[in-house]
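Side project, low priority. Logging it here so it doesn't get lost.
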Amino acid sequence: MSKREISTPAAPASIGPYSQAIDTGSLVFLSGQIPIDAATGKVVGDDAAAQTRQIFRNIRAVLAAVGLEPDDIVKSTVFLKDMEDFAAMNEVYAQELQAPHPARSAVQVARLPKDVLVEIEVIASRVCP
């Protein structure tokens, strides 16, 4: 298997020893996205819905860098600071990803980078039956 690092200035730069995404040819693994505006480097949104919208802007930017789109997402993992924000996140999530929806896990965590409310990582596929 070969792997290629994906990096685009249209999404927030990695702030540690990780890649925005790794492309294996058939699958693209995106690192967790938080609601950072790539142009300003600042957190966008005071609530889970606004933060989720920004996260999907970032996800779309990374996917576009490899010629994919949200319909190519096959798995997502949602990390929430507080499970009370699940409904707000889920409403935006449902607007962003059409049926058939990706497989998904959602968990509450003790803390997220920059004290954001939501982080989402995805796996996208170039090969769907």
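Brief comment: Residues 45 and 117 are 9 Å apart (CA to CA).
Revisit when time allows.
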